[in-house]
Amino acid sequence: MRNLRPLLALAGAGLISMFAWGVARSEDSSTALRVLVVSTGNAAPYTEVLRGFEHHWRGGSPERIVEVVYLNESGTPEKTTTDRVIGGNPDFVVTLGVAATRTALRVITDRPVIATLIANEAEIETPANATGVILDHPVELQLQTVKRVLPDTRKLGVLYSSERNIHRIKKAKKIAKRLGMKVYAVEVPEPKELPEALASIMREVDVLWGLPDPLVLNPQTAKTVLMTSLLEQVPFVGPSAAWAKAGALFALDWDYEDLGIQCSEMVQRLEGGLDVSALVAERSRSNEFAINLKSAEWLRVEIPEAERQEAQIVYR
Question: Is the whole-model pTM more than 0.85?
Fold first, then answer.
């Protein structure tokens, strides 16, 4: 049997990050506009969003100040975040990631919070002071990409546990029919049922489609999902480039700097007098395409040349 280690070595490391918290880029000006950025971590997606936001919003102006609080893996204590808000007196708060968003919204109620690097809009639906940019690839785009990369696909499998994915799967079934595919969906109510569900669905499908799902697809399940895909010779379509890096055949991802720019544009609309309650959450507008050529070789899949050329991220 061929060695899977080169393909799977990053399955955990590429999807799990450990962070220390700190505060950066503090300046002092009584007349400046201030933004507090609360970030779940300092890995590439977070730093790219921050870079895009700062470059677009600050524009080199000393009258625009950005302070950054980084959470550790268990979340910075609420008092730390509260102290930064009170001490820095920010005009706006931008949060990066689920943990940062939840932490900030627990303690920040009197100023606008713009969240991103979250996939579930429910995170910001209840607080009246919250809006943001949601990570989301339209279902139609995802299935069209499957058909372009793997044109012979007829049976598309998907595992899910999250109730919010039921609507997406219903929509996917209608779209798949137009594209000459059939969707096979299997619910996974508990983590212990994942291996059996994987084994079962792999016998029925040509391709496994990875919908973002906190129970099915997470750092703890990554190796199981990826190893099963490679051993069963069923391509896995990851929910992000991190999964492609770890062994998925391909994935749609986001232009993270542009996410930061989207957040900056939302802050600018708030600066112009728009109330945060009137600022509807947006979907990410820029997509990137990642492929893993090692996985393609292992799976004996030939990715069309046009799709290779289109890929912004290529893992070899």
Answer: no
**DSSP helix/strand/coil, 125:** coil
270 in the same domain as 226: no
Q: Burial of 45 by CB count in 10 Å (0-12 exposed, 13-18 middle, 19+ buried)?
A: buried
Tokens of 199: 């084994």
Radius of gyration of the chain (CA): 21
Terminal Cα distance for the chain, rounded:
20
Question: Kind and range of the H or E element at 249?
Answer: none
In a shared domain, residues 39 and 117: yes
Number of domains in the chain: 2
Residues 6 or more apart in contact with residue 24 via CB below 8 angstroms? 67, 68, 70
* Strand (E) or helix (H) holding 129: none
Tokens of 117: 């690097």
Based on the domain organization, do 118 and 231 belong to the same domain? no
Q: What are phi and psi of 57, to 5 degrees?
A: -80, -40
What digits encode the pLDDT tens for the residues 103-140?
999 989 999 999 999 998 999 999 999 999 999 999 99
Tokens encoding 183: 């969707």
Confidence of residue 71 (pLDDT cuts 50, 70, 90): confident
Backbone angles phi, psi at 8, to 5 degrees: -105, -5
Write out the residue range of the structural domain in which residue 223 sits.
Answer: 5-12+137-253+288-315
**66: which 2 tokens?**
């950005």
If residue 260 lies in a helix (H) or strand (E), which one and from where to where?
helix 256-271
Q: Looking at residue 20, what is its pLDDT?
A: 33
pLDDT score recorded for residue 164: 78
Domain with 48 in it: what CATH number?
A: 3.40.50.2300
Instruction: Enter the DSSP assignment of 40.
Output: S
Same domain, 220 and 308: yes
For tokens 């997606």, name the residue.
45
Instruction: Give the amino acid at 200.
Output: S
Q: Are residues 193 and 309 in the same domain?
A: yes
Residues 32 and 76 in one domain: yes
